Amino acid sequence: MLYSVQHQVYSIKMFLFADQLEYDEPMQEKVQRMAQFLLLFYVVAWLRAPVAEDAPANDLNLYQGGRLQRELEYVRSSLGEGAGSLHQIVVQTPREDDSSVLRAEALLAHYEAVKAASQVSVDMHDITWRLRDLCYAPGFPVYEEHLIDQIMKKLIPCSFVTPLDCFWEGSKLLGPEFPVHMPKMSSEIRWTNLDPEQLLSYMNSTFGSEFQFDTLQKYMKRAGITNGYQRRPCLNTSDPECPETASNRASGARLDIGAELTGGCYGFATKHMHWPEQLIVGGTEKNRTGHIVRAKALQTVIQLMGERNLYEYWADTYKTHSMDWSLATAKAILDAWQLKFTQEIQRHTGQHNRTRPFSISSFSMASLNSILRHFADLDLTRVGIGYGLMLVYGFFSLVRWSDPVRSQGGLGAAGVLLVTLSVTAGLGLCGLIGIPFNASTTQIIPFLALGLGVDDMFLMAHTYSESDLSCTPVQDRVGEVLRRAGVSVLLTSLCNVMAFLSAAILPIPALRSFSLQACILVVFNVLSILLIFPAMMSVDLRRRRARMFDIVCCWAEPGPEEGHAEPLESFSTQTQQPTKRATVAKASRTGEVTTFVSHGPELDVGAGGDSAPQPHLTRSVESLDSVASTRTLVRADERRPTTGAVFCPEGRRHCRRLGLQWLVERHYLDWLPRRPFKLAVLLASLAAAAAGVWGACQVQDGLDLTDMVPRHSDEYTFLDAQRRYFGFFNMFAVTQGNFEYPTNQQLLHEYHQAFTRVPRVIKNDDGGLPDFWLGMFRDWLLDLQKAFDHDWALGLIDQEQWSRNASEEGILAYKLLVQTGRVEYPIDKSQLPHVRLVEDGIINPKAFYNYLTAWASNDALAYTSSQAQLRPEPKQWLHVASDVELKIPKSQPLVYAQLPFYLNGMATTESIVETIEQVRSICRRFEERGLPNFPAGVPFTFWEQYVGLRFFLGLALLCVFVAVFLVISVVLMNAWAAGLVVLVIGLTVLQLFGVMGLLGLRLSAVPAVILIMSVGIGVEFTVHILLGYLTSLGSRTMRVQRSLEHMFRPVFHGAFSTFLGVLMLAFSEFDFIIRYFFCVLAALVVLGLVNGLVLLPVLLCWIGPPAEVRPTGEADVLPAPSPEPSPPRVRGPRVYRSSSLTKQPTKKLKPAPSQLSLSTITEESSGSQSGTSCRQEARTHDIVVEPQVVVETSYPPGGGERRPAGSDGALITTKVTATTHVKVEVHAPVTCADARRPRRRREAADSDSSNSSQSSS
């Protein structure tokens, strides 16, 4: 893939420079089509890339490739995608903080809101869908009598978990929507007036033996369906429908709502529907007796079918026969109803006076998924503003208004556009290879990749702008820029790639996708900067060579030859007749050089050497230790104007250059060598590190869902209230296959009882756990056994048959007892009566799966209430007393079963993690005993990552630090330098961790990725300074100063561009983006900039590694290379040069007194005997020059410090004239060339602009 990407980039490059490569017309058309195909191909792949938010919402928080993913996959494969139940939740809190909801008015307002919202309906595919069509309703056995079946279908209501069930008003939520009419009854039946016991008694007396009301009555009594809501107290006793049997109707006494809610409430089937008080009342305060006296919140939960359950429930029915019924359709119906429910809650709360004193909010997974989809949408306006802002910054940071030819604003803008195209292409490749897009891709990646890419572009542009390339042939100048800056760009990009790959260690799918996408974009950015941006610099070099203005290329500045551009072929060799500025240098014995630079009129240099009177001079002082050679000394004040500086008009006596470079050179570099400054920096760094340690200790694990939704939204209000007042979750203990359920029943009971020791598992009123499916199954069989024993004792049942007076339960028990569980002979009547259905608490193992079939079908209410979700599902078999067929089908062995539990007090991540560890410990213990099991539920899906998050974070940080150390050590061949970089970056990460603690952020996978990513980004702030330090000469302090002088501005501009790249994140409507991305990344930029430009230089001054190249001895400069030896001198006719032969009268600068000594020439000459013999053989003489020198520097026409834009390759002549006016030519004899070369290299170190010799720069 990398090989093909390189060819694709090269193809686009061929298209961009087709006019220079001179293609014929067919080839040019082919290249153009290829480039268009590649661009469109990548863009289409980007737009069609998979979006993670279309998948389940837990993709952001579950582990990948680990235990949790395997467990979730097992649940999904066993139950099917979308199986289970959904919850529509309503939470009510008072708007005043000191109020309580333990008032009748609060509960009545709660009822009105829930009632209004539950009556909404949606129309899809010309079919109306109501709550009754979508809700989870308890199962009920099927009867042969059609009338009973119709009555039960209408009366069995949806399941509401609500505090209203403690009162008669809870019956108003159950309906039915259309009252039930009974034959021979004048009144209509609703749950508001339904007394099931009285109804069955009336029907039995009215219809007699036509119906089996006795069996139905026993069944309802076993489920706890007795008096319904008729004896529960009324919140409003003045309600005309309040029954006379209500506990407070006759007395009218004031109702103690807190006492009624204490211990929870019961639904219409009291045995299977107990709602713990922690689930329905929140923020409670209790008295000494344990009764609730104050509460802050009420909660109602409506259970809906999952999309798969809804699909299977309505498949092949009259309601869906005319439509394309599928899982997607079922999901769309559920989402639409839930969203409409939420909207109705908001509308009702705002329009009714009773609900206005309270804050009532609703929540569902559909609304959360809608927010996440909006969260993942790409905001093109914000992206456009961000990229436009970066484009403007790239232009203005490199533009030079006073010198439009040397200005590089267009190059900066083109670089930003190049990075934009690179980001687009990289995202296209990510979509092409199947890396899913998610919220971090659309919200973070475009801005982060832009900042990192523009950082490298600024370094290349500054190197291109500030480097002295006058002595480099024009065809090699771009290569020279790559040689100087390419290593830094490549090194930082490699470190970023290592950081993002290390972040992919975190086993979280969305964040792993984020890391891989960022890694690919970094690769695309570095390829574009190193391959395409040099071509842009080459084009800009041609523009400057043609003296065209920046941006407005149709305008040009007249050149030295009447505005004609100099041919490129002669650019590196042709010279111009220069003008002259005078630079007078005076050296003292203390090592200080005083340089006088004239700012007067231009002085033309002639052959005679005369000069005009001395113009005004500007005095500057610098140390000889900072001078690498005589050429550097001469050019001390010939530096190019800094971008953004304020230029002085020609002829001004005083000139101040303002800007970042001026501040660095005039102030920062002066402070840096001072010991107090270094001590202050070290103390401040230690204090920051200590604060980072303290802040890191304050960081807690977790990620609040309130950070994921916009503030002031209804979802935010709900999530905040639910977190503060409830902290309620349900969980399941799942048992798997490859386990003998019939023979290991005792182990299952012990497994269930082990959860009693988990403190946050809600217990019953008696301190025990709610029954699970195996316990309910056993209790049902025990009741049947009692009925059989009673009928057997009365002689109603014998070994062969039963009589007509035998009970239905006794007959069913008879059919079960004769089951053998064997396929070859399923029935054995000889087992009676010594075989028991349940013996010593253990169900008969041989016929276990036959019994399971009968229980699931004939005790449907208990089976559905157990939430066992047995897989494979038990077979259907309905018991009919008159049916003499004894064979009961055998269900398949179980591979999946679950035990439900309710958890309370889970408001903090610490409490959730503690509970997870306790549950996992139980699961491991029983796993060792042979029971394959695991826990499931929201806490484990969303919070189990925090159990191992810090371990994975530490592992990833260790990997990235080792990778950065190895990359820098190998590339620079300097482990010392790599250690310093890792130290500084480690302090940056520690300080960033502390900033997270100070900002109150929690440690989750998202901040963990940013911490890992900060290592790679931190390299951007350190490596450039380090490379400049390693490649400089002199003492540690001098090398640090030289590195900062050249690298401070590009590092600062790169950091500022990164800040601009993430600035648009501050305008997101999601607090999560602002707090966890913008604030953290902005803090990273500030900390990295301070540590890279302040702390690292101080450390380098004290413990920096040695330079890559070190002069011999204690010298601070390298000896200049000696010139090639001249041929033997041949006497010829003497040639006299006269000033009369020049075209213009010449003027000479008057010598100024100087203490600069060039006596090094004579000292070097007498340094060896071999050198002496060679000089004698060549008949040369020692040259002694007085310590006074005049340095004359001539520039091409343009004058002053403003050099013409087209003079990059023009010769700048430097003439050093001794006061004796002696012109000296030094020739190396051919016979002694080898002996003289080392000496001449040493001579050139101090005088590479020797007396009257001309050097071009």
TrEMBL record:
One of its GO terms (cellular component) is plasma membrane. One of its GO terms (molecular function) is hedgehog receptor activity. Residues 379-539 form the SSD domain. The chain crosses the membrane at residues 380-399, 411-437, 443-464, 485-508, 514-539, 951-973, 980-999, 1005-1030, 1051-1067, 1073-1103. Pfam families: Sterol-sensing (PF12349). Belongs to the patched family. This is Protein patched. It comes from Amphibalanus amphitrite.
